Amino acid sequence: MPPPESDQAPGVPSRLLGHLVGAVAQIGERAFALLAHVGDLVILFGAAIRWIAHGLVNPKVRKGNSALIFQIVRVGVRSIFIVGLVSGCVGLILALQLAPPLDGFGQRELIANIVGVAVLRELGPLIGAIVLTGFAGASIAAEIGTMVVSEEVEALEAHALNPVRFLVVPRVFATILSMTALGVIASTVSIASSMAVSITILDIPLTTYVRNTLLQAKFVDFATGTMKATVFGALIGLIACGNGLKVTGGAAGVGNATTSTVVQSVVAIVIADLVFTAIFYALKLV
To answer: CA–CA separation, 143 vs 118, rounded Å?
Structure first.
């Protein structure tokens, strides 16, 4: 004899409610983990700033200039070629893509106006940051993660050497300085490549291109782009060092930290770019 309908009906809603509660709990757990990770990065950044300030104020504290220079060469100088290559290709693409629609209005020479502003404000810092994330951010996370797995970090602590001072500070400071310079280099190469293809293929006179660029691009465009690049460098360095120091689980943990560093850095860079753009728009700087 089948059970009454009143005994069957509550089963389906209860299962749906259970799935809904589980999904909400999972979302809340991930949100809490994200907030905890952001908090750890803020604490790490504060510790790094404290050590930098301590080294600048106290003359007895070693500055670690050799370590900083080594990291700048490793992170920044070795990234110049790939950043220049990608930026140059982007400049060529922009010029060739903008020519047909602007021809419809008889304004092909406005390529210089559009490329100058777009590159200085957005594309230069963004391209440099994404390239640096894959080139140096993953490397930093893997290096520090390997040191954690091989217990080198514990050896530093056993000798009363602070890992933040000797591992994090030179790498974060190097990524900040390197990214600031790479943003300028990326913007310069993009504009130069766009100018080259505009003169040689699109038949735009050099004087016209230079004049339109100088008329459209202002110092505020360069300043805001450079500011973005500096913040992007800080994000890359912090995320890479933070993920490296939290590695667990041997070689698999190092691989997971490297992957997480690239993904988190790209997401953080795009979100920071959005926040900066909104602020600059509110301040009428765009």
So the answer is: 35
Spatial separation of the C-alpha atoms in residues 218 and 188, rounded to whole Å? 14
Q: Are 240 and 141 in contact (CB under 8 A)?
A: yes
DSSP 135: I
Cβ(123)–Cβ(190) under 8 Å?
Answer: yes
Give dist(CA 124, CA 222) in Å, integer: 10
Is the whole-model pTM more than 0.85? yes
Domains of the chain, residue spans? 64-282
pLDDT at 1 over 50: no
With contact defined as beta carbons under 8 Å apart, do 164 and 51 qualify?
yes
* SS3 of 59-82: CCCCCCHHHHHHHHHHHCHHHHHH
Indicate the Cα dihedral angle 240, 243, 245, 246, nearest 10°. 180
Cα 121 from chain centroid (whole Å): 15
Task: Give the chain's radius of gyration (CA, Å).
Answer: 25
Residue 158 has pLDDT above 90, yes or no: no
- Distance of alpha carbon 224 from alpha carbon 201, whole angstroms: 31
Alpha-carbon span 254 to 142, nearest angstrom: 6
Residues 162-174: b if buried by 16+ CB within 10 A, e if exposed? ebbbebbbbbbbb
Q: Output the six-digit token pair for 124.
A: 């230069």
Q: Could you read off the pLDDT of 104-132 as tens digits, one per residue? A: 898 999 999 999 999 999 999 999 999 99
**Cα–Cα distance, 51 to 55 (Å, whole number):** 6
Distance CA 180, CA 177 (A): 5
DSSP 286: -
* Structural contact between residues 150 and 253, judged by C-beta atoms closer than 8 angstroms: no
